[in-house]
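Lecture notes, unit on binding sites. The following record was shown on slide 14. It pairs a sequence with oxa(dethia)-CoA.
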Amino acid sequence: MTKITAAISAVGKYVPDYILTNKELESYVDTNDEWITSRTGIKERRILKGEGLGTSFMAIKAAEDLLQKSGTNAAEIDLVIVATATPDLPVASTAVYVATKIGAINAFGYDLQAACSSFLYGMSNAASYIESGRYKKILLIGADKMSSIINYEDRATCIIFGDGAGAALFEPNNEGLGLQDEYLRSDGIGRDFLRIEAGGSIMPPTLETVNAKKHFVYQEGKTVFKYAVSNMADVSEKMLTRNNLTEKDIQWLVAHQANKRIIQATANRVGVSADKVMMNIHKYGNTTSATLPLLLADYEDQLKKGDNLIFAAFGGGFTWGSIYLKWAYNTKN
Ligand code: UT7
Protein backbone atom coordinates (compact mmCIF):
# COMPACT_ATOMS: atom_id res chain seq x y z
CA MET A 1 0.00 0.00 0.00
CA THR A 2 1.37 3.44 -0.91
CA LYS A 3 1.86 5.86 1.96
CA ILE A 4 -0.57 8.80 2.07
CA THR A 5 1.26 12.11 2.23
CA ALA A 6 -0.32 15.36 3.40
CA ALA A 7 0.03 18.29 1.03
CA ILE A 8 -1.01 21.93 1.15
CA SER A 9 -3.55 22.33 -1.66
CA ALA A 10 -4.57 25.99 -1.16
CA VAL A 11 -3.67 29.07 0.88
CA GLY A 12 -5.40 32.33 1.86
CA LYS A 13 -4.65 35.45 3.86
CA TYR A 14 -6.02 38.54 5.53
CA VAL A 15 -4.28 41.56 6.98
CA PRO A 16 -6.13 44.56 8.44
CA ASP A 17 -6.11 47.86 6.51
CA TYR A 18 -4.59 50.03 9.24
CA ILE A 19 -0.83 50.49 8.80
CA LEU A 20 1.17 51.30 11.93
CA THR A 21 4.44 52.82 10.71
CA ASN A 22 7.74 53.22 12.53
CA LYS A 23 7.09 56.96 12.31
CA GLU A 24 3.84 56.65 14.26
CA LEU A 25 5.58 54.53 16.92
CA GLU A 26 8.05 57.39 17.39
CA SER A 27 5.15 59.39 18.83
CA TYR A 28 4.39 56.67 21.45
CA VAL A 29 7.84 55.62 22.69
CA ASP A 30 11.48 56.68 22.55
CA THR A 31 12.46 54.95 19.31
CA ASN A 32 13.19 55.76 15.69
CA ASP A 33 12.85 54.32 12.21
CA GLU A 34 16.61 53.76 11.84
CA TRP A 35 16.86 51.70 15.06
CA ILE A 36 13.79 49.58 14.29
CA THR A 37 14.80 48.96 10.67
CA SER A 38 18.41 48.06 11.40
CA ARG A 39 17.67 45.88 14.48
CA THR A 40 14.58 44.08 13.18
CA GLY A 41 13.94 44.77 9.47
CA ILE A 42 10.43 46.01 10.26
CA LYS A 43 9.08 49.15 8.55
CA GLU A 44 5.37 48.79 9.31
CA ARG A 45 2.78 46.40 10.68
CA ARG A 46 -1.01 46.00 10.38
CA ILE A 47 -3.38 46.68 13.27
CA LEU A 48 -6.96 45.46 13.59
CA LYS A 49 -9.13 48.41 14.62
CA GLY A 50 -12.80 48.26 15.50
CA GLU A 51 -14.70 47.49 18.65
CA GLY A 52 -15.56 43.85 19.24
CA LEU A 53 -13.27 42.48 16.53
CA GLY A 54 -10.99 39.69 17.70
CA THR A 55 -8.69 37.11 16.16
CA SER A 56 -11.64 35.20 14.67
CA PHE A 57 -12.48 38.19 12.45
CA MET A 58 -9.14 37.85 10.67
CA ALA A 59 -9.17 34.02 10.71
CA ILE A 60 -12.58 33.98 9.02
CA LYS A 61 -11.41 36.43 6.34
CA ALA A 62 -8.28 34.35 5.63
CA ALA A 63 -10.34 31.16 5.44
CA GLU A 64 -12.88 32.80 3.12
CA ASP A 65 -10.04 33.98 0.88
CA LEU A 66 -8.76 30.38 0.66
CA LEU A 67 -12.22 28.91 0.04
CA GLN A 68 -13.02 31.44 -2.65
CA LYS A 69 -9.67 31.15 -4.46
CA SER A 70 -9.65 27.34 -4.44
CA GLY A 71 -13.37 26.79 -4.98
CA THR A 72 -13.48 24.59 -1.89
CA ASN A 73 -16.86 23.71 -0.43
CA ALA A 74 -16.66 24.50 3.31
CA ALA A 75 -19.07 21.66 4.08
CA GLU A 76 -16.38 19.17 2.97
CA ILE A 77 -13.88 20.32 5.62
CA ASP A 78 -13.35 17.75 8.37
CA LEU A 79 -11.39 19.81 10.87
CA VAL A 80 -10.57 23.47 11.50
CA ILE A 81 -7.49 24.21 13.62
CA VAL A 82 -6.83 27.80 14.65
CA ALA A 83 -3.22 28.26 15.70
CA THR A 84 -3.22 31.32 17.94
CA ALA A 85 -1.81 32.90 21.07
CA THR A 86 -4.65 35.41 21.17
CA PRO A 87 -7.95 33.50 21.13
CA ASP A 88 -11.16 35.55 21.04
CA LEU A 89 -12.12 34.37 24.54
CA PRO A 90 -10.65 32.18 27.25
CA VAL A 91 -12.21 28.68 27.27
CA ALA A 92 -14.53 29.02 24.22
CA SER A 93 -12.53 27.76 21.23
CA THR A 94 -11.94 30.32 18.48
CA ALA A 95 -11.66 27.55 15.87
CA VAL A 96 -15.16 26.30 16.62
CA TYR A 97 -16.61 29.77 16.06
CA VAL A 98 -14.59 30.20 12.85
CA ALA A 99 -15.75 26.80 11.53
CA THR A 100 -19.39 27.71 12.08
CA LYS A 101 -19.02 31.16 10.53
CA ILE A 102 -17.39 29.89 7.33
CA GLY A 103 -19.99 27.16 6.88
CA ALA A 104 -17.79 24.21 7.82
CA ILE A 105 -20.89 22.51 9.17
CA ASN A 106 -19.38 19.01 9.18
CA ALA A 107 -16.11 19.94 10.86
CA PHE A 108 -14.90 19.83 14.42
CA GLY A 109 -12.43 22.44 15.59
CA TYR A 110 -9.89 23.34 18.22
CA ASP A 111 -7.26 25.95 19.00
CA LEU A 112 -3.54 25.19 19.18
CA GLN A 113 -1.25 27.37 21.27
CA ALA A 114 2.51 27.14 20.96
CA ALA A 115 3.28 30.87 20.70
CA CYS A 116 5.21 31.69 17.51
CA SER A 117 5.54 27.98 16.67
CA SER A 118 1.76 27.42 16.71
CA PHE A 119 1.39 27.17 12.94
CA LEU A 120 4.43 24.90 12.59
CA TYR A 121 3.08 22.53 15.25
CA GLY A 122 -0.33 22.83 13.56
CA MET A 123 1.20 21.62 10.29
CA SER A 124 2.33 18.50 12.12
CA ASN A 125 -1.19 17.99 13.55
CA ALA A 126 -2.91 18.50 10.22
CA ALA A 127 -0.48 16.26 8.34
CA SER A 128 -0.75 13.45 10.90
CA TYR A 129 -4.55 13.32 10.63
CA ILE A 130 -4.32 13.20 6.83
CA GLU A 131 -1.55 10.56 6.81
CA SER A 132 -3.64 8.39 9.14
CA GLY A 133 -6.31 8.26 6.44
CA ARG A 134 -8.96 9.36 8.91
CA TYR A 135 -9.65 12.82 7.46
CA LYS A 136 -9.45 14.30 3.95
CA LYS A 137 -9.60 18.09 4.32
CA ILE A 138 -8.07 20.02 7.21
CA LEU A 139 -8.09 23.79 7.36
CA LEU A 140 -5.20 25.15 9.40
CA ILE A 141 -5.37 28.86 10.18
CA GLY A 142 -2.66 30.90 11.89
CA ALA A 143 -4.12 34.11 13.30
CA ASP A 144 -3.15 36.59 15.98
CA LYS A 145 -4.35 39.97 17.13
CA MET A 146 -1.07 40.82 18.85
CA SER A 147 -2.16 44.45 19.32
CA SER A 148 -4.61 43.18 22.00
CA ILE A 149 -1.72 42.05 24.25
CA ILE A 150 0.93 44.68 23.50
CA ASN A 151 1.76 47.64 25.74
CA TYR A 152 2.27 50.60 23.41
CA GLU A 153 4.36 52.27 26.11
CA ASP A 154 6.95 49.44 26.05
CA ARG A 155 9.46 50.03 23.28
CA ALA A 156 10.99 46.58 23.75
CA THR A 157 7.84 44.93 22.38
CA CYS A 158 5.53 47.40 20.66
CA ILE A 159 7.83 47.89 17.69
CA ILE A 160 7.86 44.20 16.86
CA PHE A 161 4.35 42.82 16.68
CA GLY A 162 1.45 43.16 14.27
CA ASP A 163 -1.92 41.57 13.46
CA GLY A 164 -2.84 39.20 10.64
CA ALA A 165 -4.05 35.76 9.56
CA GLY A 166 -3.16 33.11 7.01
CA ALA A 167 -4.74 29.78 6.12
CA ALA A 168 -3.65 26.53 4.49
CA LEU A 169 -5.72 23.54 3.38
CA PHE A 170 -4.18 20.08 3.91
CA GLU A 171 -5.30 17.18 1.72
CA PRO A 172 -4.03 13.68 0.86
CA ASN A 173 -1.56 13.52 -2.04
CA ASN A 174 -0.86 10.44 -4.14
CA GLU A 175 2.37 11.72 -5.73
CA GLY A 176 4.43 11.77 -2.55
CA LEU A 177 4.24 15.57 -2.26
CA GLY A 178 3.55 17.51 0.95
CA LEU A 179 5.09 17.04 4.37
CA GLN A 180 8.24 14.90 4.23
CA ASP A 181 9.82 15.29 7.67
CA GLU A 182 9.49 17.24 10.90
CA TYR A 183 11.62 17.93 13.95
CA LEU A 184 9.72 19.73 16.73
CA ARG A 185 11.27 20.77 20.04
CA SER A 186 10.36 22.62 23.27
CA ASP A 187 12.00 23.72 26.52
CA GLY A 188 10.11 25.10 29.55
CA ILE A 189 13.07 27.26 30.51
CA GLY A 190 11.65 29.78 28.05
CA ARG A 191 8.71 31.01 30.04
CA ASP A 192 10.90 33.24 32.18
CA PHE A 193 11.92 35.22 29.11
CA LEU A 194 8.75 35.59 27.04
CA ARG A 195 5.31 35.58 28.64
CA ILE A 196 2.21 37.38 29.84
CA GLU A 197 2.39 37.25 33.61
CA ALA A 198 -1.27 37.65 34.59
CA GLY A 199 -4.61 36.42 33.32
CA GLY A 200 -3.81 32.70 33.53
CA SER A 201 -4.41 30.23 36.34
CA ILE A 202 -1.29 31.25 38.28
CA MET A 203 -2.28 34.90 38.52
CA PRO A 204 -5.94 35.50 37.67
CA PRO A 205 -6.88 39.06 36.73
CA THR A 206 -7.38 41.63 39.50
CA LEU A 207 -7.45 45.40 39.54
CA GLU A 208 -3.83 45.31 40.71
CA THR A 209 -2.65 43.11 37.82
CA VAL A 210 -4.36 45.40 35.33
CA ASN A 211 -2.88 48.55 36.90
CA ALA A 212 0.58 46.93 36.90
CA LYS A 213 0.19 46.19 33.14
CA LYS A 214 0.73 42.48 33.74
CA HIS A 215 -1.65 41.48 30.94
CA PHE A 216 0.77 42.59 28.27
CA VAL A 217 3.62 40.66 26.62
CA TYR A 218 6.92 40.78 28.49
CA GLN A 219 10.04 39.82 26.55
CA GLU A 220 13.71 39.70 27.47
CA GLY A 221 14.65 40.33 23.86
CA LYS A 222 18.39 39.67 23.97
CA THR A 223 18.00 36.25 25.61
CA VAL A 224 15.18 35.20 23.30
CA PHE A 225 17.24 36.39 20.34
CA LYS A 226 20.18 34.15 21.29
CA TYR A 227 18.01 31.05 21.75
CA ALA A 228 16.11 31.81 18.53
CA VAL A 229 19.24 32.19 16.40
CA SER A 230 20.94 29.02 17.57
CA ASN A 231 17.84 26.80 17.74
CA MET A 232 16.24 27.81 14.45
CA ALA A 233 19.54 27.39 12.65
CA ASP A 234 20.23 24.03 14.36
CA VAL A 235 16.91 22.43 13.46
CA SER A 236 16.96 23.72 9.89
CA GLU A 237 20.46 22.34 9.36
CA LYS A 238 19.39 19.03 10.91
CA MET A 239 16.42 18.87 8.54
CA LEU A 240 18.74 19.13 5.54
CA THR A 241 21.30 16.70 6.89
CA ARG A 242 18.93 13.92 7.81
CA ASN A 243 17.13 14.17 4.45
CA ASN A 244 20.41 14.19 2.49
CA LEU A 245 19.63 17.64 1.09
CA THR A 246 22.13 20.34 0.18
CA GLU A 247 21.34 24.03 -0.23
CA LYS A 248 21.02 23.40 -3.99
CA ASP A 249 18.04 21.13 -3.36
CA ILE A 250 16.16 23.84 -1.44
CA GLN A 251 13.97 26.29 -3.34
CA TRP A 252 12.61 28.22 -0.32
CA LEU A 253 13.35 28.87 3.33
CA VAL A 254 10.06 29.70 5.08
CA ALA A 255 11.17 31.07 8.44
CA HIS A 256 9.15 32.66 11.23
CA GLN A 257 9.29 36.45 10.86
CA ALA A 258 10.46 37.67 14.28
CA ASN A 259 13.60 39.52 13.34
CA LYS A 260 15.36 39.85 9.98
CA ARG A 261 18.71 39.11 11.65
CA ILE A 262 17.41 35.78 13.02
CA ILE A 263 16.09 34.81 9.58
CA GLN A 264 19.41 35.72 7.94
CA ALA A 265 21.36 33.73 10.52
CA THR A 266 19.22 30.67 9.76
CA ALA A 267 19.65 31.19 6.00
CA ASN A 268 23.43 31.47 6.42
CA ARG A 269 23.66 28.24 8.39
CA VAL A 270 21.57 26.36 5.83
CA GLY A 271 23.59 28.02 3.08
CA VAL A 272 20.70 29.36 0.99
CA SER A 273 21.02 32.69 -0.80
CA ALA A 274 18.79 35.67 -0.03
CA ASP A 275 16.62 35.13 -3.13
CA LYS A 276 15.45 31.80 -1.67
CA VAL A 277 14.39 33.31 1.67
CA MET A 278 10.74 34.31 1.95
CA MET A 279 10.50 37.66 3.68
CA ASN A 280 7.59 39.92 4.57
CA ILE A 281 8.63 41.12 8.02
CA HIS A 282 9.15 44.65 6.65
CA LYS A 283 5.42 45.06 6.01
CA TYR A 284 3.74 42.97 8.72
CA GLY A 285 6.23 42.71 11.63
CA ASN A 286 5.88 39.62 13.82
CA THR A 287 2.32 38.32 13.54
CA THR A 288 3.13 35.28 15.76
CA SER A 289 1.00 32.36 14.46
CA ALA A 290 0.30 34.07 11.14
CA THR A 291 3.84 34.61 9.82
CA LEU A 292 4.29 31.25 8.04
CA PRO A 293 0.92 31.12 6.24
CA LEU A 294 1.20 34.82 5.33
CA LEU A 295 4.53 34.01 3.67
CA LEU A 296 2.95 31.15 1.72
CA ALA A 297 0.10 33.38 0.56
CA ASP A 298 2.45 36.22 -0.43
CA TYR A 299 4.79 33.89 -2.36
CA GLU A 300 2.15 31.48 -3.71
CA ASP A 301 2.52 32.73 -7.30
CA GLN A 302 6.26 31.95 -7.26
CA LEU A 303 5.93 28.44 -5.86
CA LYS A 304 6.15 25.50 -8.24
CA LYS A 305 4.98 21.92 -7.88
CA GLY A 306 7.82 19.84 -6.46
CA ASP A 307 9.65 22.77 -4.83
CA ASN A 308 11.42 21.84 -1.61
CA LEU A 309 10.48 24.14 1.27
CA ILE A 310 12.21 24.21 4.65
CA PHE A 311 10.03 25.73 7.39
CA ALA A 312 11.54 26.96 10.65
CA ALA A 313 10.04 28.68 13.68
CA PHE A 314 10.95 29.69 17.21
CA GLY A 315 8.70 31.12 19.90
CA GLY A 316 7.64 31.49 23.50
CA GLY A 317 7.72 28.49 25.78
CA PHE A 318 10.28 27.95 24.30
CA THR A 319 8.92 26.13 21.25
CA TRP A 320 10.70 25.60 17.95
CA GLY A 321 11.24 23.25 15.07
CA SER A 322 11.60 22.66 11.37
CA ILE A 323 9.49 20.98 8.68
CA TYR A 324 10.48 19.80 5.22
CA LEU A 325 7.62 20.03 2.74
CA LYS A 326 7.34 19.49 -1.01
CA TRP A 327 5.01 22.03 -2.63
CA ALA A 328 2.13 20.33 -4.42
CA TYR A 329 0.71 22.70 -7.03
CA ASN A 330 1.32 25.42 -9.58
CA THR A 331 -0.81 28.53 -9.26
CA LYS A 332 -3.40 28.83 -12.01
CA ASN A 333 -3.54 32.46 -13.19
O1 UT7 B 1 8.77 35.64 17.91
C1 UT7 B 1 9.04 35.12 19.16
C2 UT7 B 1 10.44 35.13 19.48
N1 UT7 B 1 10.93 36.48 19.60
C3 UT7 B 1 12.05 36.84 19.02
O2 UT7 B 1 12.62 36.05 18.32
C4 UT7 B 1 12.59 38.20 19.31
C5 UT7 B 1 14.04 38.12 19.67
N2 UT7 B 1 14.62 39.38 20.06
C6 UT7 B 1 14.85 40.40 19.19
O3 UT7 B 1 14.41 40.37 18.05
C7 UT7 B 1 15.69 41.55 19.64
O4 UT7 B 1 16.32 41.21 20.85
C8 UT7 B 1 14.94 42.90 19.82
C9 UT7 B 1 14.51 43.44 18.47
C10 UT7 B 1 13.72 42.69 20.70
C11 UT7 B 1 15.86 43.91 20.46
O5 UT7 B 1 17.04 44.06 19.68
P1 UT7 B 1 18.49 43.96 20.36
O6 UT7 B 1 19.46 44.19 19.28
O7 UT7 B 1 18.55 42.65 21.10
O8 UT7 B 1 18.48 45.18 21.33
P2 UT7 B 1 18.73 45.22 22.92
O9 UT7 B 1 17.50 44.77 23.63
O10 UT7 B 1 20.02 44.57 23.24
O11 UT7 B 1 18.92 46.77 23.13
C12 UT7 B 1 20.05 47.48 22.57
C13 UT7 B 1 19.91 48.94 22.92
C14 UT7 B 1 19.64 49.20 24.40
O12 UT7 B 1 20.25 50.40 24.75
P3 UT7 B 1 21.67 50.42 25.52
O13 UT7 B 1 21.46 49.65 26.77
O14 UT7 B 1 22.63 49.74 24.56
O15 UT7 B 1 21.93 51.86 25.71
C15 UT7 B 1 18.15 49.34 24.47
O16 UT7 B 1 17.72 50.11 25.58
O17 UT7 B 1 18.78 49.50 22.23
C16 UT7 B 1 17.87 50.06 23.18
N3 UT7 B 1 16.50 49.83 22.68
C17 UT7 B 1 15.89 50.63 21.80
N4 UT7 B 1 16.28 51.78 21.21
C18 UT7 B 1 15.42 52.37 20.35
C19 UT7 B 1 15.68 48.77 22.96
N5 UT7 B 1 14.55 48.90 22.27
C20 UT7 B 1 14.64 50.05 21.55
C21 UT7 B 1 13.77 50.71 20.65
N6 UT7 B 1 14.20 51.85 20.07
N7 UT7 B 1 12.56 50.23 20.33
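Take-home: Residues 31, 35, 39-40, 116, 155-156, 159, 221-222, 224-225, 228, 258-259, 262, 286, 314-315 surround oxa(dethia)-CoA (CB under 6 Å).
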